[in-house]
Give the backbone structure.
Amino acid sequence: MAATSVCVAGLSSSFHGSWGASFANGGEEYRMLARSVPNVRVARPIRMQPMMGNINEGKGIFAPVVVLTRNIIGKKRFNQFRGKAIALHSQVITEFCKSIGADAKQRQGLIRLAKKNGERLGFLA
């Protein structure tokens, strides 16, 4: 029988015979090696949080008025008001699409266009 010695990171183990023989005897040497290795915790990689915000924050012709209004009435009431205004504008776009016979895909495209224009003009600052 050949004796083989393995040393990994300061831990060593000897095998007598073939690899199959060391596991054939119940894997005792494998269990001894596994017991001698301390539990190692591996930290999860740090993920960047997705940025939820307007890239044009503070830009646009209406941004100063929007920021001033938000500071005066408070963030909560401002967001409620903004939500109602956006919903109303979406309804106007929907009614317009119905009147000209545009399908749902075109309507959705117009709503996206309105959002982009609102960002550029500073309404979503």
Observations:
- The mean pLDDT is 77.
